[in-house]
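Support reply, case 0932

Customer input (verbatim):
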Amino acid sequence: MRQFHGVCRGCGREFISAKKDQRYCSQECVRRDTPRRMREYRETHKEGAENLKPREITQTTVYLVHKYAAEGMPAGVIAQTLDRCMDDVGKALAQPITRGQAEAIREYFVRYRPRKDK
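Our regenerated output:
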């Protein structure tokens, strides 16, 4: 059986493995290193509304922003949900909606509840 030498990404110790792509010496090192890896992933894969450029505001955007705001969704979450910058959300909220749209919002009202991350 072939053996591969590696350096643990969690603790830095050298280890021998039967797998060529093993990165940790033990499950304990994987468990301890997970918060750091998740933090790095979030930092390198930011998709926040602060990185987006303003785009044209459509009637659909105006309706959805008003709908989500009426349901209690925070502006930052609305921006992220619609893949819009915060300026777009503000501009859409400043535009009036039609009576029909207001009635639709009331008819299909669902209270916003943030997800509880485990």
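We compared this against your earlier run and they match. Two observations from our side: The first strand starts at residue 4 and ends at 7. Residues 4-44 form one domain. Please reopen the case if you see a mismatch on your end.
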